[in-house]
Write a structure and sequence with these properties.
The complex is a heterodimer. By secondary structure, chain A is an all-alpha fold. Chain A folds into three domains: about 45 residues, no CATH class; about 110 residues, no CATH class; about 50 residues, no CATH class. Chain A contains 13 helices and no strands. In chain A, helix 1 runs parallel beside helix 3, helix 7 runs parallel beside helix 9 and helix 12 packs antiparallel against helix 13. Chain A is elongated and about 95 Å long. The termini of chain A are far apart. Chain B has two domains: about 80 residues, Rna Polymerase Sigma Factor, Chain: A, CATH 1.10.1740.10; about 90 residues, Winged helix-like DNA-binding domain superfamily/Winged helix DNA-binding domain (Arc Repressor Mutant, subunit A, Orthogonal Bundle), CATH 1.10.10.10. Chain B has ten helices and no strands. The radius of gyration of chain B is 18 Å and the shape is globular. The chains are: A mainly alpha, B mainly alpha. The complex binds zinc ion. Zinc ion binds next to helix 1 and helix 3 of chain A. The site of zinc ion has 6 residues of chain A, from helix 1 and helix 3.
């Protein structure tokens, strides 16, 4: 055995994975080579020392979130199976397999996976197809959670909406519906914030404007006005003007509407 | 995983219970951020669910899982790079916090080694070297499985693990000298 060969076997030697014959051979080299002997003991101590590093423990949140996702996914799947148009999971397994690998590479290239080259080969079109499917699954979880009884589940659903594609109209629709109809103020507020993710869609401004005319809770009205200002939606002006002049409206909301009008001009 | 892939989605819970801690530790070792590591664990199980039909029962499950994990990690770096500008100082500070946290008695000196120093050395190790060391040493993965994850030959893995531990040794002794002076 040369020193070069010995070096590549050292980690196996320390881990006791060389096997009996391999170990005998390795020990024979050590007996005859002072350099490798000293290296094995010096670096080996460090190798063993790594065992003593304290282990990090995840918080309980990880488990909660996992089971929540699993539950939502199964429910969403059951609901989606009732809608034959959206059966994206019927894609043949080989195609999925290829695409799953592809998206992995697609994301890896140029972003710091070093030295190994692509794990799989493939065409960009399939990568984008796979991205779309991942988005569909996020959509499934978001939509399913937003329909739950408990407000905290619905809040979770809204936070999943941030992971949906900005062009996802179904998630946008669910958010708008939450802003308009959810019984819980926190869910409505969170949904207004999440609408920002969809700011590129012209529907977002339109929906926010419609919602503003229906809302009666001041804090949600203020959040919607902020959103309209951020969207720089000139069509918001008439509704804002009406609101700022409405004497039955909350004073804070009227001031906010006035402020927004100045901003939009 | 074969069962999950065959449609028994609830079986994923078994895999979760078995692997979420090692995965979490992998991510913490790689990015030094517990919160992000927890997000990434979630993301990996999400993708496992999503890509479950791509799992080949003849393939090593851990290799498949770490392929997903690596790509989820890379994807997160990409998102941080574009969506929110990474505050590199915060990132480094967090790592430093992690390093200086709790030098308990068992950590102080053992076998003539300073574990706090060893941990700092690990953190200073270049990412690719740290990763291969984490996979082989902390995740207990076989060289064959690591080769599958990294997409290289088994022989290459052996050489790279060796180089990584040597690099760690150099950093460790540099830190030790600094400390002594
Ligand atoms: Zn030698």
């Amino acid at each position: 055995m040369t020193c070069e060969e010995a070096k590549t076997r050292m980690t196996d030697y320390w881990s006791r994975t060389l096997g009996e014959a391999g170990e005998t051979e390795f020990n024979a080299h050590l007996a005859s080579c002072e350099t490798c002997r000293s290296e094995v003991s010096r670096v080996g101590a460090l190798w063993q020392g790594l065992d003593l590093l304290p282990l990090e423990e995840p918080s309980g949140k990880v488990r909660d979130r996992f089971y929540e996702m699993l539950g939502a996914y199964r429910q969403g799947l059951a609901a989606a199976e009732a809608r034959p148009a959206k059966r994206w999971w019927t894609i043949p397994a080989w195609q999925m397999a290829a695409a799953a690998g592809l998206v992995a590479v697609g994301l890896g290239i140029g972003y710091g996976v070093r030295g190994n080259g692509p794990l799989f080969g493939g065409a960009p079109a399939e990568v984008s197809q796979l991205r779309e499917e991942v988005a569909n699954m996020r959509q499934l979880v978001a939509l399913s959670l937003m329909q739950q009884q408990s407000a905290s589940d619905r809040l979770r659903g809204v936070s999943w909406a941030y992971r949906a594609e900005p062009s996802d109209r179904e998630v946008l629709g669910a958010l708008v519906s939450a802003v308009n109809h959810d019984a819980n103020v926190n869910v409505r507020l969170a949904a207004v914030d999440a609408l920002r993710r969809f700011s590129a869609s012209p529907e977002t401004g339109r929906a926010a404007l419609q919602s503003l005319s229906k809302q009666t809770t001041p804090i949600v009205q203020v959040a919607l006005i902020d959103l309209l200002v951020d969207l720089k939606d000139p069509q918001a002006a008439p509704e804002l003007r009406r609101l700022s002049g409405n004497e039955t409206a909350n004073e804070g909301v009227r001031q906010k509407a006035q402020w927004a009008l100045e901003r939009l001009q | 995983m074969a069962e999950v892939s065959a449609g028994k989605v609830a079986r994923l819970a078994v895999l979760f219970e078995r692997y979420h801690r090692p995965l979490f530790r992998y991510f913490v070792s790689m990015n030094g951020n517990r919160e992000q590591a927890e997000d990434l664990v979630q993301e990996v199980f999400f993708r496992m669910l999503r890509y479950r039909t791509s799992y080949d029962p003849a393939q090593s499950f851990t290799a498949w899982m770490y392929q997903i994990a690596r790509n989820a990690g890379v994807d997160q770096v990409r998102k941080r790079g574009t969506a929110q500008v990474v505050d590199i100082d915060t990132f480094v500070d967090r790592r430093a916090e992690l390093v200086s946290a709790s030098p308990g008695p068992e950590e102080s000196v053992s076998r003539g080694q300073d574990l706090a120093l060893l941990r700092r050395a690990m953190d200073q190790l270049p990412e690719d070297k740290r990763e291969i060391l984490v996979l082989s040493r902390f995740q207990g993965m076989k060289h064959e499985d690591i080769a599958e994850v990294l997409g290289c030959e088994v022989g290459t893995v052996k050489v790279r693990v060796y180089r990584a531990i040597r690099a760690l040794e150099q950093i460790y002794f540099t830190l030790e000298k600094e400390k002594a002076s």
